[in-house]
Structures are given as C-alpha cells and as structure tokens.
C-alpha cells in the first residue's frame, strides 16, 4: 500500500502528534461536526453542544485507532478488524463519512503542523487514511 518513503512520512507525522491524541481528535471531531453537521448523528452521546471532556475522550479513542493503524500499516485488515465490525455491524456508520473525516483530519494536521506538514507528507497521509477507510468499509459488503 505505502512505499518506504510514504511509510516514513506517516511515521514522522505520527511522532509529531503522539501524546496529543485527545486534543487532535477533539479538534478533528469538532471540525467534522461544524463542516458536516449530518455526521453528528453517530455521536448522539456527545449531545448538541459537546462538552469538552466528552469531546476529548472520544477524540482520544479516534486517534488511538489511527495510532493502531500506523503501528500495523503492513496488516491493517487484521489490526482494524474489530473496529471495522463495530462500524459496520453495530454503529452502522455510512461509509460516505470516512472521506469527510479524512479531509477534516488533514486540515487539522496542516493547521497545527504548518510547514512541518509537507506536500509529500499530506499525500502519504491521504493514501494511508484512504487505506484505513477502505479496510473499515470492507465489512459492509
């Protein structure tokens, strides 16, 4: 899926955000809800105006899943299988939402990392996150 250079870019960006998963994740979710309000349907437990603690907690879980994917880039299917089952069979998330999440995540990365988030890194992350989304939606079939 990713070549050696792309893997290095993904790992390098992850190293920059590791330890800050809750804050990046919360901002990602807030941006997703603001730009695409229809996505809030899957987060009813957060309420109409999500409280910061709940947003940070769920953002942490979202980014921890990304961290698992980063660590298992060679075997995303196996690493993300439980998460794919959850999204397809329990939460029943519309797969069309994954590209929206990817887009918002890249905006968050670019806004925080600025010059450190190069065009090459963005391309690698786009390819990586698209691969994650594909794995998460395979169970829908």
TrEMBL record:
<dbReference type="GO" id="GO:0031720">
    <property type="term" value="F:haptoglobin binding"/>
</dbReference>
<dbReference type="GO" id="GO:0046872">
    <property type="term" value="F:metal ion binding"/>
</dbReference>
<comment type="similarity">
    <text>Belongs to the globin family.</text>
</comment>
<keyword id="KW-0479">Metal-binding</keyword>
<protein>
    <recommendedName>
        <fullName>Hemoglobin subunit mu</fullName>
    </recommendedName>
</protein>
<dbReference type="InterPro" id="IPR050056">
    <property type="entry name" value="Hemoglobin_oxygen_transport"/>
</dbReference>
<dbReference type="GO" id="GO:0072562">
    <property type="term" value="C:blood microparticle"/>
</dbReference>
<feature type="domain" description="Globin">
    <location>
        <begin position="1"/>
        <end position="141"/>
    </location>
</feature>
<keyword id="KW-0408">Iron</keyword>
<keyword id="KW-0813">Transport</keyword>
<dbReference type="GO" id="GO:0020037">
    <property type="term" value="F:heme binding"/>
</dbReference>
<dbReference type="GO" id="GO:0031838">
    <property type="term" value="C:haptoglobin-hemoglobin complex"/>
</dbReference>
<dbReference type="GO" id="GO:0043177">
    <property type="term" value="F:organic acid binding"/>
</dbReference>
<keyword id="KW-0349">Heme</keyword>
<dbReference type="GO" id="GO:0004601">
    <property type="term" value="F:peroxidase activity"/>
</dbReference>
<dbReference type="GO" id="GO:0019825">
    <property type="term" value="F:oxygen binding"/>
</dbReference>
<keyword id="KW-0561">Oxygen transport</keyword>
<dbReference type="GO" id="GO:0042744">
    <property type="term" value="P:hydrogen peroxide catabolic process"/>
</dbReference>
<dbReference type="InterPro" id="IPR009050">
    <property type="entry name" value="Globin-like_sf"/>
</dbReference>
<dbReference type="GO" id="GO:0005833">
    <property type="term" value="C:hemoglobin complex"/>
</dbReference>
<dbReference type="Pfam" id="PF00042">
    <property type="entry name" value="Globin"/>
</dbReference>
<dbReference type="InterPro" id="IPR000971">
    <property type="entry name" value="Globin"/>
</dbReference>
<dbReference type="InterPro" id="IPR002338">
    <property type="entry name" value="Hemoglobin_a-typ"/>
</dbReference>
<dbReference type="InterPro" id="IPR012292">
    <property type="entry name" value="Globin/Proto"/>
</dbReference>
<dbReference type="GO" id="GO:0005344">
    <property type="term" value="F:oxygen carrier activity"/>
</dbReference>
């Amino acid at each position: 899926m990713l070549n050696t250079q792309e893997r290095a870019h993904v790992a390098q960006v992850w190293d920059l955000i590791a330890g800050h998963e809750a804050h990046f994740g919360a901002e990602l979710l807030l941006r997703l809800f603001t730009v695409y309000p229809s996505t809030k349907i899957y987060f009813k437990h957060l309420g109409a105006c999500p409280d910061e603690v709940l947003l940070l907690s769920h953002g942490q879980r979202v980014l921890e899943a990304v961290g698992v994917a980063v660590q298992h880039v060679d075997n995303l299917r196996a690493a993300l299988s439980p998460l794919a089952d959850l999204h397809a069979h329990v939460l029943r998330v519309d797969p069309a939402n994954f590209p929206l999440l990817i887009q918002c995540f890249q905006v968050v990365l670019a806004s925080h990392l600025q010059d450190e988030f190069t065009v090459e890194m963005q391309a690698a992350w786009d390819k990586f996150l698209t691969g994650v989304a594909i794995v998460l939606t395979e169970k829908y079939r």
